[in-house]
Structure formats: C-alpha cells, structure tokens
Amino acid sequence: MQARFEELIAADERIEPRDWMPEAYRKTLVRQIAQHAHSEIIGMQPEGNWITRAPSLRRKAILLAKVQDEAGHGLYLYAAAETLGVDRADLLDALHSGRQKYSSIFNYPTLTWADIGAIGWLVDGAAIINQIPLQRCSYGPYARAMVRICKEESFHQRQGFELLYDLAHGTAEQHAMAQDALNRWWWPSLMMFGPPDAESAHSAQSMAWRIKRHSNDELRQRFVDISVPQAEALGLTIPDPDLRWNEERGHHDFGVIDWTEFQEVLAGNGPCNRQRVAARVRAHEDGEWVRQAALAYAAKHSADGRDGERNVAAA
Amino acid sequence: MQARFEELIAADERIEPRDWMPEAYRKTLVRQIAQHAHSEIIGMQPEGNWITRAPSLRRKAILLAKVQDEAGHGLYLYAAAETLGVDRADLLDALHSGRQKYSSIFNYPTLTWADIGAIGWLVDGAAIINQIPLQRCSYGPYARAMVRICKEESFHQRQGFELLYDLAHGTAEQHAMAQDALNRWWWPSLMMFGPPDAESAHSAQSMAWRIKRHSNDELRQRFVDISVPQAEALGLTIPDPDLRWNEERGHHDFGVIDWTEFQEVLAGNGPCNRQRVAARVRAHEDGEWVRQAALAYAAKHSADGRDGERNVAAA
Amino acid sequence: MTTPVAQYALQLGDDALILSQRLSEWCAHAPELEEDVALANLALDLLGQARTLLTYAGSLEGRGRSEDDLAFLRTEREFRNVLLVEQPNGDFAMTIARQLYFATYQYELYAALCESTDAELAGLAAKAVKEVAYHRDHAVQWTLRLGDGTEESRRRMQEGVDQLWPYTAELFEADAVALELAGSGAAVDPRTLRPAWEASVAEVIEAATLTMPSGDWQPRGGRAGKHTEAFGLLLGEMQALHRQFPGAAW
Amino acid sequence: MTTPVAQYALQLGDDALILSQRLSEWCAHAPELEEDVALANLALDLLGQARTLLTYAGSLEGRGRSEDDLAFLRTEREFRNVLLVEQPNGDFAMTIARQLYFATYQYELYAALCESTDAELAGLAAKAVKEVAYHRDHAVQWTLRLGDGTEESRRRMQEGVDQLWPYTAELFEADAVALELAGSGAAVDPRTLRPAWEASVAEVIEAATLTMPSGDWQPRGGRAGKHTEAFGLLLGEMQALHRQFPGAAW
Predict the structure, then answer these.
(1) What is the CATH number of the domain that holds D170?
(2) Which of A230, B147, B271, C188 has the fewest CB atoms inside 10 Å of its own CB, making it the most exposed?
C-alpha cells in the first residue's frame, strides 16, 4: 500500500479518498484544508463589515456576491476535508476553541472602504499565488476544489484592483484613502506566505508529498514581482523604501519583514483575533436552535415517511 | 374624617399623605400620577431615538439634558405616587402588563429631527397647559412635584420652539422638514387634552376634588389660542383649513378632531404602542440582574455592618 | 413632475432595496454556512431587482437621477417601501416569517406583472418571478422545519408570524398610483393579490403546525414615506459612506 | 499646520466625545430609572468637556473649524480617541468596567492637568476634575455592588474588567505630542499617571472581591486614527443627519 501511494506521488497522479495514505499525510491535509476553510468563513467578517455601507449599488452587489462566494468556498473545502474522515462540526469546534487556525490576515480590521479594494487586490492576490500550485496538489478532492476556487478568486482580485483604481483616480480624499489602505495591508499580505523558508516547520515534508510545490519565499517573491507594476498602474506607492528592481536577480529586492508582528498576530494578539472568534462563536451558538429544529424536522419526516417531499427539503 | 377632608378641599388647602382621604380619591390620584410618571419614562424613547444623531453638539447636549429631566420627572412622580401607599415596582409592572396607560402621544414615531422640535413645542406645550393647574391640585405631594416639573417643561418648550425656528428659517429642505413635523404632530397634540367634555368619564369627580380645575375642551381651546401666533412666528402653517379667529367668541375656531384615531391609539393600535412597551419591558428585564445585585450587596453589607460607607453607597 | 409609472417603480424598487439591506445584515452571522450562502443569494436577487427598478424610475422622472442618487441621496420621508421590509431581522424565525410573507406577495405580484402593458415592468417581472419563486420556496421550507421542528423553534416561528402579521395588510393597500396604473393595465391592483396570497400563506402555516395569526392592528404609511423608527437608523448606515464624500464616484 | 496643543486637545476631546456618545446609547434602556439619570449625566459632562476641547483645538489650528466641523465632518481615520472609549456598551457590567478604567484615568489626568502651563487646559481641567470625581465614584460603587452582589453579577463584572483590560495600556502611552507638551509643562506625560491609576483600580477590584486582570495583549492605534471596526458604525450613526444636509445650520 505504502509502495502504491509512493508510486502515485512519484508519477504526479492524484490520491483519492478510497486510496490508502499514510496517517501523517492525511493529518497534514486535514489541517491544511481545515485552515483554508476556516479562513474563507472568517474572511467573510472583515468584508461583511462594509456590505451595508457600500457606496454604490453596483459595488454593494459585487461585494455581496464576493462574500457569498467565500461562504461557498468554505462549503467545498469542508466537504473536501470530510473525504478524509473528519466532519464539519468537529472542524468548526476546533476553530471555535482555537485548536485550529485561520489565516492571520483576517485579524486586521477593515477601517475604510478602500480596505475592501486592498483585500481583493492584495489578499486575494496573495491567496491565488499560494493556491494556483494547489490545483495540482496530490490529493484529488482538494486539487479539484482549488480549480474552482482559484477561478473565482481571480475574478475577486480583478474587482478589488478595479475598486482601488477608481479610488486612486478619484478625488484627493479617495486617493488618500486608497494609499492608506495599501500602507496598512502591504506588509501583512507579504506575511501571508508564511515564515521564511529557513524557519518553515512543515514545508519539506509537504513538498515531498506534492501537497506543496514552491517554498514560502519563492511565492512571496512572485507576489512582490507581480504587485509592483500593479501598484504603479494604480498610481499608489508601496510602503517599502527598500523596494527596488535587482537586475542581477531578475527580481525585486524588498525590505525586512517584521516577523515579531507576525508571531504576535499568530499567537492571538492581532487587532481583531478576539472579535473574529467571538463573532463566529456567537453566530454558531445563536444558530444552535435552528440546526436542532432542522434535525428534528428531518427525523420526524423520515421516520413516518408520510411526506417524502418535505423530507427532501429538510435534507 | 370625611368632613375634615371636605373642609380642606373646600378651603382649597392641600391634602397630605398623613391625612385621611376617601378611597376613590386615593385611587384616582394613584391612577393619574402613575400615568403621568409612565408618560415621562415612555416619553424618553421617541426623543432618545435622536440623541445619537443630533446634528450639532449644542443640540445634542440640550436633548440629552431634556431626556435626563424626563427620567428625573419620572422619579419625582413615582415618589409622589408612593406617598399614597403603592410602590414603584408595582406601578412599573402595571405599565409593562398594560394595566396602566401612558400618554398616547408617545405612540407616534419620531421620523425626523424636526420631530424633536415639534415634541418640545407642541407636546411639552400641551403638557404644560394640562399641568399648570395641577400645581394647585388638592394633593400636596403631586402639586409640589408639578411646580418643579412645570418649570423644567417650560424650558423644554422654549428649546423645542427655538429648534423649530432655526429649521423653519434654515434651508428649504429644513423648512419642509419643520412643516412636515407640524403636519404630523398637530392633531395628536390636540388629542392630548383628552376626549370632549361631553364624553369625559372621570372629569366631573376630579373637578369636585380639585384634582382637576379646567375641562378638557377649555384647555384644548387655550392651547390652540396660544399656538396660532407661535406657528405664525415660526412661519409654519397649522394643518387645519377650518382654523380661524372667531371675533365673537374671542377664540380660534378649529376643525373636527378625528376621535376614531384617538380611540385606536388608546386601544393599543397606534404606530408604536407595541414597540414602546416592548422596549420598556426589555430594559426592565435586562436590568433585573443589576437590581438583584444591588439588593444582594446592600443586604450583605447592612447585615454584617462592617462597612458603613459602602452601605450608604448601595442604598 | 414624476410619472405614475416612475412612482410605482420606486415603490417596488424601494421594497426590494430595503429588504436586501436587511438580509445582508445576516452576512457571516447565519445559523449555518448554507444559510450564509442562501441569504446572500436572496439579498443579491433583490438588489438586482432594485437596481433595475430604481434606474427605470430615475429615467422616467426625467431629473437625471441614477439608481445611486435614489438609493443614497433621498431622506427617510422620501422612501416608498412598505413597513414590512424595514422591520428588524430579529432572530432567524423572524427573518423567515418576513420572507414568507413578502416573497409570497412578491411572487403573486411579479406573476401578475408579467402581463403589464409597460414593457419594462413586464420584462423585469418575467425575470424576477423565477428568482422569487425560489425565495418563496426557501421561506416555505424553513417555516415547515421551524414550525414542526422542536418546541423552541415552534415557539419562535409562531412569534415571528404573529409579530409581523399586522404589517402584511399594507402589502395589499391600493394607493392612488397603483389604482391609476391598474386601470391602464400597467400595474397590478394590490387588492387582487390578497386571496391567492392568503391561501398560500395559510396552507404553509397549517402544514407547519402553526396557528394562523389574526388581529386588527394594521399599521401603514410606508408608501407615503411614514416609516418606523428603525428605518432611519437603517438608512443612516446605508448612506453613511456615500454621504461622507459628496460628489465622489465609486 | 496644527499645533501640538491643538492635537493634544483633539485627543482628549475625542476621548470625551466618543465615550459620551456610547453612554448616550443607554438612554431609556438603563437597568433602573436612577441609572437613566446617572448615565445621561455622565454623558452630558463628557459632552461638555468635548465641546470645550474641540472648540479650543479648532481655534488653535487656525483653519476655522468649529466643534461641529470637528465632530461631524472628520472621517474615521481622523479621530484621535483611545480604543477603550469606542468599545461597545455590552451589558451594564461592561459599561461600568469601561467607566471604572476611564474615569479613574481621567481623574488622574485632569488632576495633574490643573497645573498645566496652558491656561485653557488648566481651566478646563479644574472644572472637569470635579465632574470626573463623581464619575469615578459612580463606577466604583457599581463595581463593588456588582462584584460583591450575586453570583451572576460577579461573573459579569469579572468578564467586563477582563475583556476591557487590554485596552487600558493605550491610556498610558506617550505619543510624540504628549511628550513634547509634557516637556514644556502644558500636558501630562501619560506614563506618570499609571502608578496611581493602577493602585486605585486594583484597590477597587479587590474590594469588589474580583480578580485583577492580566495578560499581555495591548491593542493600540486610536491616537493614530487606527480604530476598531465598531468605531466606523458609531461614527456613521453620529454623523448621519449632519451629513445628510451639507452646509445647513442647526
């Protein structure tokens, strides 16, 4: 079995739920997919914060659709995790109790409307760079979920860029708002690629298993290289005095990341960690009676079987 | 005792808590004072609705002080009622369960900032006309409470007038807002004087007992006569095509009041009856644990008596 | 001056806009992830309808007002939505009760409006009636589950349908605009929608083992811009950012 | 450009304004009528302080901005209040915990500021310190009652002091403005206030039979205009009407 698994990995083929897999491989995937799913649903909060105040109906519709997509991504990803023999309720419980993490980026607050643009452009942009290689991840259900998710994320990323573009080319106040958002989101976005390769705990094994295909620093460099011309197109300044093109490397050099901040946020001490988890737990607890009612209804109507149609509806 | 009571009434002297009084007199007073107290505290809601949105800091301070005064009036009035052998908790319970009423005027919503002016000018204005004679009411504690209350209400009434004056002399939109408020509050204010004399259930006995000194229609006429020149000064039009000076009577004639609406609102079917009572009950229920804590603390610290100072604070 | 069709489109557009706003408040707070998706979906459909209707109203009134001008630059007293759609979300049962009443009404309305002599309204209705059929179904299924679920869910669902019942009367009130347009076949006389609505709602409430509400309190005023106090706060939040930067484009 | 004293006055003024706004949300919802009076009274005192401070800041910056321009026409990022005062009211215990922390701080601050070399600030402080002595006493008495009241009230009061504790660190942070002015004797170095504050708060918490909070999370950013998400909603509501009618006088 082990041999068969290694053969599939070596041939760059997909492992499917029915296939045998090493326990450590399964655990790594569960952890990673769950964290990804949690990030989608926690990520709804900072953006959801502005839906009711979106400054035009068109932007409101775009934002609402985006947040809806995130809930949808959460659903696929929890389903992908469930193919590994865990269930959503347990994963949510792990999120609520702090045993599992979500992306630290969502522990920063959305302070202005421009932050909605910055999240689309930078945060979704970084996510895509992280996720594109995952479309070829060795675990089939995760790889397939990523195909759909990446497609939608690209769309979100362009919308975020367009939102910021309009602000940056709007009134002086709007331009300042866009620049301020870039100032606040730039460094946290760079941290989204995880710690430097030298310190990355899980990377080597994940690369061997073809869960991961590029190192954190490689992906971070790609993000910087892509973002620099985009910032120019926006007419905004990336808040890094050390940022410059390095002809020799064929890449942009950039400043030193404040990993202390990263560790603080990861440890639960970001500006919004407590609020995010508290809001999630509150929604879950407030919804308990609803979920109970749906279960009770389904049980009643499958037990007596006298109303097939309602049954289906309650499934 | 009865003779002594009637002697005092006839001499236009005050009945005090220690004096004997007929049970019906006591009951009438409890009902009236309680209704008056309830009106003060329910009246905080429509005005409280705009404190957080007041358009200038000066107006915010004025409105906040006014609503605070209303809470204070509620306190004096419940205290006056308590001299008649009832207690506040029972009266509040009667309010919450609908056994006792509050002034129907507070079942209308405050839809714009101008409504704050209209309430001050018209509602407080009508209240003052109702209340001035109560300063000479035969029951001492009530009469004395009314002296202080009337003084503060006059102040509020002038502030409301001034607020509306500034709107009526502001931009075209502000003027329209002021006129709209007058349109909505005029008729309900006329209804504040109660049903026409011919149909007033409690009036005759209350007049005999010197609780009341003028008939509903008399006071209503006085209100109209006072308000007409004030509306002119504001540059606003009272929404009554039949309103005109009657040289012969020396009073203004005015249109027919829609008593069906009055009865509907009284019966609980005004625009906000349900919301007002629900908000009141919610505040009371949400505060239950606080009141319990204060009692528990006071009991502990009076029982062991080791901390006189805290005791006082908790009283 | 504005035309009757413009006024009518504004009424229907405001209904959709304000209900969409209320539903979007649920974002990230729904009882389960599937409902985060579903409620956002309802909000999006309604927002789409609102945009079509407000744009149409703006074009007819001839003052050059865009959908955003109408949504973000009118005051409380200028909105024409019924009181039902502005009622606060309450718990999930209250939201479902509001959906049951409103989606059932909107389904009957749009179904009839497909025959409108006004091509724009007919076109909108033809598209929207399919969306609203799903909204109604969503509300019906949840009414059944909550009504016939647990003791707690039944109590809450009954409370929801009871509390919002008074606000349904206004849905079927014929104001001058609707009457005039119904005469020419452009609009639907709201009174004609009531029998089908009531039969449909009663059937669901019965199937959900709940008691049909009653009572004669029938608050109204939304179509004349007399809203409830909660509406001003909703509007303040919705318009806050737009008004913070007068004249800016987004 | 604005002067350091103008910036300092704006910081203190924003603290008072935003806490006043939060307290006024209690209006008509307090646990008992006496508290409706008391909380309105606190809100009024703070509003008065805010008006003096904002007016002074506006006069110093020399751009002709009035107290209302500063209160109603700045954006979220331009407000300088500490994060503590913008935290939502929560239950009554949470509100009392916020009052205990803030009023104790403000008392120490104003007491020291009475000696300011800036006559306006010294004058304001001399008046305000008396008001704030009452605020502190009000918070202390309620902390004792709730902490040493029932089991439920103790649990809630402990939760209140625990949850807000992290936000107290920012009160004693010395930014460039405060440091510069402290040097000239116009302002107080906030760090010097901490020992007395902490002794006073610890004494009350102990007397209330509660546990002194700890933990090293120290969120900050208010003085630099980086607020919490709740702040934008508070501001939107506060400014809604004023912004609805640009240029109008009230």
Answers:
(1) 1.20.1260.10
(2) B147
